[in-house]
Design a protein that fits this description.
The chain folds into 2 domains: about 170 residues, HUPs (Rossmann fold), CATH 3.40.50; about 90 residues, Pantoate--beta-alanine Ligase, Chain: A,domain 2. Helix 6 packs across helix 7 and helix 8 packs antiparallel against helix 9. By secondary structure, the chain is of the alpha/beta class. About 40% of the residues lie in helices and about 20% in strands. The chain is globular, with a radius of gyration of 19 Å. A 6-stranded parallel β-sheet has the order 1-4-3-2-5-6, sandwiched between helices. The longest helix has 22 residues. The structure holds pantoate. The site of pantoate has 10 residues, from strand 2 and helix 6.
Length: about 280
Protein backbone atom coordinates (compact mmCIF):
# COMPACT_ATOMS: atom_id res chain seq x y z
CA UNK A 1 0.00 0.00 0.00
CA UNK A 2 1.42 3.38 -0.94
CA UNK A 3 1.04 6.28 1.50
CA UNK A 4 0.70 9.70 -0.10
CA UNK A 5 0.76 12.94 1.86
CA UNK A 6 0.88 15.59 -0.87
CA UNK A 7 -2.40 16.46 -2.67
CA UNK A 8 -0.64 17.18 -5.99
CA UNK A 9 1.04 13.74 -5.98
CA UNK A 10 -2.25 12.02 -5.12
CA UNK A 11 -3.87 13.88 -8.01
CA UNK A 12 -1.14 12.69 -10.41
CA UNK A 13 -1.57 9.09 -9.27
CA UNK A 14 -5.35 9.30 -9.71
CA UNK A 15 -4.96 10.90 -13.11
CA UNK A 16 -2.65 8.01 -14.13
CA UNK A 17 -5.32 5.48 -13.13
CA UNK A 18 -8.00 7.37 -15.02
CA UNK A 19 -5.87 7.48 -18.17
CA UNK A 20 -5.62 3.69 -17.94
CA UNK A 21 -9.42 3.52 -17.47
CA UNK A 22 -9.08 2.14 -13.94
CA UNK A 23 -11.99 3.12 -11.72
CA UNK A 24 -11.15 4.59 -8.31
CA UNK A 25 -13.25 4.06 -5.19
CA UNK A 26 -12.63 6.61 -2.43
CA UNK A 27 -13.36 6.00 1.24
CA UNK A 28 -12.96 9.32 3.10
CA UNK A 29 -12.29 8.89 6.84
CA UNK A 30 -10.89 10.71 9.84
CA UNK A 31 -9.06 7.55 10.99
CA UNK A 32 -9.62 5.53 14.18
CA UNK A 33 -10.90 2.90 11.79
CA UNK A 34 -13.53 0.38 12.86
CA UNK A 35 -15.62 -2.29 11.16
CA UNK A 36 -17.93 0.36 9.73
CA UNK A 37 -15.03 1.82 7.74
CA UNK A 38 -13.84 -1.66 6.78
CA UNK A 39 -17.28 -2.45 5.33
CA UNK A 40 -16.99 0.63 3.08
CA UNK A 41 -13.54 -0.48 1.94
CA UNK A 42 -14.82 -3.99 1.20
CA UNK A 43 -17.62 -2.58 -0.94
CA UNK A 44 -15.22 -0.25 -2.75
CA UNK A 45 -12.88 -3.12 -3.52
CA UNK A 46 -15.76 -5.10 -5.03
CA UNK A 47 -16.88 -2.22 -7.24
CA UNK A 48 -13.63 -0.54 -8.34
CA UNK A 49 -10.19 -1.33 -9.76
CA UNK A 50 -8.40 0.83 -7.20
CA UNK A 51 -9.39 1.73 -3.63
CA UNK A 52 -8.08 4.92 -2.06
CA UNK A 53 -8.72 5.65 1.63
CA UNK A 54 -8.14 9.12 3.03
CA UNK A 55 -7.37 9.79 6.67
CA UNK A 56 -7.64 13.45 7.54
CA UNK A 57 -9.00 14.87 10.79
CA UNK A 58 -10.57 17.88 9.19
CA UNK A 59 -10.29 20.87 11.57
CA UNK A 60 -12.92 22.94 9.77
CA UNK A 61 -15.76 20.58 10.68
CA UNK A 62 -15.17 20.94 14.42
CA UNK A 63 -16.63 23.83 16.41
CA UNK A 64 -14.13 25.69 18.60
CA UNK A 65 -15.69 24.00 21.66
CA UNK A 66 -15.68 20.51 20.11
CA UNK A 67 -13.26 17.63 20.52
CA UNK A 68 -10.73 18.23 17.68
CA UNK A 69 -7.67 17.77 19.91
CA UNK A 70 -9.20 14.81 21.68
CA UNK A 71 -10.31 13.10 18.45
CA UNK A 72 -8.79 9.58 18.51
CA UNK A 73 -5.57 9.14 16.53
CA UNK A 74 -4.51 5.56 15.86
CA UNK A 75 -2.28 5.94 12.81
CA UNK A 76 -0.16 2.78 13.18
CA UNK A 77 -3.09 0.44 13.75
CA UNK A 78 -5.09 2.21 11.01
CA UNK A 79 -2.26 1.61 8.51
CA UNK A 80 -2.12 -2.07 9.46
CA UNK A 81 -5.90 -2.42 9.06
CA UNK A 82 -5.75 -0.78 5.62
CA UNK A 83 -2.90 -3.07 4.51
CA UNK A 84 -4.81 -6.11 5.74
CA UNK A 85 -7.92 -4.91 3.88
CA UNK A 86 -5.96 -4.69 0.61
CA UNK A 87 -6.27 -0.92 0.14
CA UNK A 88 -4.14 0.38 -2.75
CA UNK A 89 -3.45 3.92 -1.58
CA UNK A 90 -3.72 5.77 1.70
CA UNK A 91 -3.97 9.53 1.27
CA UNK A 92 -2.99 11.16 4.54
CA UNK A 93 -2.34 14.88 4.15
CA UNK A 94 -1.85 17.34 6.99
CA UNK A 95 -3.85 20.49 7.59
CA UNK A 96 -1.21 22.79 6.07
CA UNK A 97 -1.38 20.90 2.77
CA UNK A 98 -5.16 20.90 2.74
CA UNK A 99 -5.57 24.49 3.91
CA UNK A 100 -2.46 26.41 2.88
CA UNK A 101 -2.04 30.11 3.73
CA UNK A 102 -4.65 32.17 1.95
CA UNK A 103 -7.20 29.35 1.70
CA UNK A 104 -10.58 31.10 1.61
CA UNK A 105 -13.18 28.96 -0.18
CA UNK A 106 -16.07 27.06 1.32
CA UNK A 107 -19.10 25.12 0.15
CA UNK A 108 -22.48 25.53 1.76
CA UNK A 109 -25.34 23.18 0.92
CA UNK A 110 -28.12 25.50 2.05
CA UNK A 111 -31.18 24.19 3.81
CA UNK A 112 -30.11 20.60 4.39
CA UNK A 113 -27.19 21.80 6.49
CA UNK A 114 -29.32 23.67 9.03
CA UNK A 115 -31.53 20.79 10.15
CA UNK A 116 -30.89 17.95 12.64
CA UNK A 117 -27.18 18.06 13.59
CA UNK A 118 -26.74 21.35 11.71
CA UNK A 119 -28.85 23.15 14.32
CA UNK A 120 -26.41 22.06 17.05
CA UNK A 121 -23.15 22.21 15.09
CA UNK A 122 -23.13 25.47 13.10
CA UNK A 123 -20.59 25.40 10.28
CA UNK A 124 -20.01 21.65 10.64
CA UNK A 125 -21.51 20.65 7.30
CA UNK A 126 -19.82 23.45 5.43
CA UNK A 127 -16.52 22.06 6.76
CA UNK A 128 -17.55 18.56 5.67
CA UNK A 129 -18.75 19.60 2.19
CA UNK A 130 -15.64 21.65 1.52
CA UNK A 131 -13.18 18.94 2.53
CA UNK A 132 -15.12 16.20 0.71
CA UNK A 133 -15.18 18.33 -2.44
CA UNK A 134 -11.41 18.80 -2.12
CA UNK A 135 -10.93 15.04 -1.62
CA UNK A 136 -13.04 14.38 -4.73
CA UNK A 137 -10.90 16.80 -6.74
CA UNK A 138 -7.70 15.25 -5.43
CA UNK A 139 -8.59 11.54 -5.68
CA UNK A 140 -10.92 11.82 -8.72
CA UNK A 141 -13.05 8.83 -7.68
CA UNK A 142 -15.70 7.17 -9.82
CA UNK A 143 -17.45 6.24 -6.55
CA UNK A 144 -17.19 7.42 -2.97
CA UNK A 145 -18.36 5.43 0.04
CA UNK A 146 -20.06 6.77 3.18
CA UNK A 147 -21.88 5.13 6.08
CA UNK A 148 -25.60 5.58 6.64
CA UNK A 149 -24.89 6.36 10.30
CA UNK A 150 -24.13 9.93 9.20
CA UNK A 151 -27.37 10.06 7.22
CA UNK A 152 -27.53 13.87 7.01
CA UNK A 153 -23.91 13.99 5.84
CA UNK A 154 -24.70 11.53 3.03
CA UNK A 155 -27.69 13.60 1.86
CA UNK A 156 -25.62 16.80 1.88
CA UNK A 157 -22.78 15.17 -0.05
CA UNK A 158 -25.22 13.72 -2.61
CA UNK A 159 -26.76 17.18 -3.08
CA UNK A 160 -23.34 18.81 -3.43
CA UNK A 161 -22.15 16.17 -5.93
CA UNK A 162 -25.30 16.66 -8.03
CA UNK A 163 -25.34 20.48 -7.79
CA UNK A 164 -21.66 20.86 -8.67
CA UNK A 165 -21.61 18.17 -11.42
CA UNK A 166 -18.88 16.31 -9.58
CA UNK A 167 -19.46 13.14 -11.59
CA UNK A 168 -18.82 10.78 -8.69
CA UNK A 169 -21.38 8.23 -7.57
CA UNK A 170 -22.16 8.50 -3.85
CA UNK A 171 -22.59 5.03 -2.35
CA UNK A 172 -24.22 4.83 1.08
CA UNK A 173 -23.56 1.61 3.02
CA UNK A 174 -25.59 0.16 5.93
CA UNK A 175 -24.82 1.00 9.55
CA UNK A 176 -22.53 -1.55 11.18
CA UNK A 177 -23.54 -2.35 14.77
CA UNK A 178 -22.00 -4.11 17.75
CA UNK A 179 -23.78 -7.38 18.62
CA UNK A 180 -25.90 -5.49 21.20
CA UNK A 181 -27.00 -2.88 18.64
CA UNK A 182 -24.71 0.07 19.41
CA UNK A 183 -23.72 1.69 16.11
CA UNK A 184 -19.96 1.51 15.51
CA UNK A 185 -18.36 4.91 15.88
CA UNK A 186 -14.85 6.23 16.47
CA UNK A 187 -16.33 8.20 19.38
CA UNK A 188 -17.47 5.04 21.23
CA UNK A 189 -14.01 4.82 22.80
CA UNK A 190 -14.93 7.87 24.91
CA UNK A 191 -17.64 5.84 26.66
CA UNK A 192 -17.01 4.24 30.05
CA UNK A 193 -18.63 0.81 30.51
CA UNK A 194 -21.59 2.44 32.33
CA UNK A 195 -22.02 5.05 29.58
CA UNK A 196 -21.72 2.41 26.91
CA UNK A 197 -24.49 0.38 28.56
CA UNK A 198 -26.61 3.55 28.78
CA UNK A 199 -25.99 4.29 25.08
CA UNK A 200 -27.94 1.15 24.16
CA UNK A 201 -31.08 3.18 24.88
CA UNK A 202 -30.61 4.73 21.41
CA UNK A 203 -31.06 1.44 19.60
CA UNK A 204 -33.93 0.51 21.92
CA UNK A 205 -35.67 3.81 21.11
CA UNK A 206 -35.16 3.33 17.35
CA UNK A 207 -36.55 -0.20 17.48
CA UNK A 208 -39.52 0.79 19.65
CA UNK A 209 -40.36 3.57 17.19
CA UNK A 210 -39.97 1.26 14.19
CA UNK A 211 -42.23 -1.32 15.86
CA UNK A 212 -44.90 1.33 16.45
CA UNK A 213 -44.81 2.36 12.80
CA UNK A 214 -44.90 -1.22 11.58
CA UNK A 215 -47.87 -1.95 13.84
CA UNK A 216 -49.84 0.80 12.11
CA UNK A 217 -49.23 4.02 14.09
CA UNK A 218 -49.69 6.91 11.65
CA UNK A 219 -49.17 9.89 13.96
CA UNK A 220 -45.48 10.84 13.95
CA UNK A 221 -45.92 12.77 17.23
CA UNK A 222 -46.80 9.50 19.00
CA UNK A 223 -43.68 7.85 17.58
CA UNK A 224 -41.55 10.86 18.56
CA UNK A 225 -42.93 10.78 22.12
CA UNK A 226 -42.14 7.07 22.43
CA UNK A 227 -38.49 7.70 21.46
CA UNK A 228 -38.10 10.73 23.72
CA UNK A 229 -39.75 9.00 26.71
CA UNK A 230 -37.33 6.11 26.41
CA UNK A 231 -34.30 8.35 25.97
CA UNK A 232 -35.02 10.59 28.97
CA UNK A 233 -35.74 7.53 31.12
CA UNK A 234 -32.01 6.68 30.94
CA UNK A 235 -30.35 8.60 33.80
CA UNK A 236 -26.94 8.92 32.08
CA UNK A 237 -28.43 10.71 29.05
CA UNK A 238 -27.46 14.32 29.72
CA UNK A 239 -29.19 15.86 26.67
CA UNK A 240 -31.57 14.79 23.92
CA UNK A 241 -30.76 17.07 20.99
CA UNK A 242 -33.29 15.55 18.63
CA UNK A 243 -35.30 12.37 18.32
CA UNK A 244 -38.10 12.40 15.76
CA UNK A 245 -39.38 11.13 12.41
CA UNK A 246 -38.10 12.88 9.30
CA UNK A 247 -38.56 12.83 5.55
CA UNK A 248 -35.33 11.14 4.38
CA UNK A 249 -34.98 13.41 1.32
CA UNK A 250 -35.75 16.84 2.76
CA UNK A 251 -34.88 16.04 6.41
CA UNK A 252 -38.05 17.92 7.41
CA UNK A 253 -39.79 16.57 10.49
CA UNK A 254 -42.92 14.59 9.59
CA UNK A 255 -46.25 14.99 11.36
CA UNK A 256 -47.75 11.92 9.64
CA UNK A 257 -45.98 8.62 9.05
CA UNK A 258 -45.28 8.30 5.36
CA UNK A 259 -43.98 5.62 2.98
CA UNK A 260 -40.37 6.48 3.80
CA UNK A 261 -39.54 7.48 7.36
CA UNK A 262 -36.17 8.37 8.83
CA UNK A 263 -35.98 7.87 12.59
CA UNK A 264 -33.02 9.94 13.76
CA UNK A 265 -31.56 10.56 17.20
CA UNK A 266 -28.77 12.72 18.64
CA UNK A 267 -28.08 12.57 22.37
CA UNK A 268 -25.28 13.32 24.75
CA UNK A 269 -24.08 10.92 27.40
CA UNK A 270 -21.90 13.07 29.60
CA UNK A 271 -19.89 15.08 27.08
CA UNK A 272 -20.02 12.40 24.35
CA UNK A 273 -22.40 13.15 21.52
CA UNK A 274 -23.88 10.09 19.82
CA UNK A 275 -26.06 9.87 16.72
CA UNK A 276 -27.93 7.00 15.13
CA UNK A 277 -30.80 6.45 12.72
CA UNK A 278 -33.03 3.89 11.08
CA UNK A 279 -34.99 4.01 7.83
CA UNK A 280 -38.49 2.55 8.09
CA UNK A 281 -40.22 1.91 4.79
CA UNK A 282 -43.91 0.89 4.81
O1 LIG B 1 -17.58 11.04 8.19
C1 LIG B 1 -16.41 11.43 8.36
O2 LIG B 1 -15.53 10.73 8.88
C2 LIG B 1 -16.03 12.84 7.93
O3 LIG B 1 -17.08 13.72 8.10
C3 LIG B 1 -15.50 12.90 6.47
C4 LIG B 1 -16.57 12.48 5.47
C5 LIG B 1 -14.28 11.99 6.32
C6 LIG B 1 -15.08 14.33 6.13
O4 LIG B 1 -14.07 14.79 6.96
Amino acid sequence: MEIIRIPRIMQQISEGHRLKCRSIGLVPTMGALHEGHLSLIKRSKCENDITVVSIFINPTQFDPNEDLDKYPKEVDSDIQKLKDAGVDTLFMPDAVQMYPDGFSSSIKVSGLDEKLCGAFRPGHFSGVSTVVCKLFNIARPARAYFGQKDFQQTQIIRRMAADLNIGCEIVVCPIVRESDGLAKSSRNIYLSSESRAAALVIYRALNAAADLIRSGESNAAVVKKKMNDLLVSEPLVSEVQYAAVYDPSTLDELSQISKENLLAIAIKIGETRLIDNMLVLI
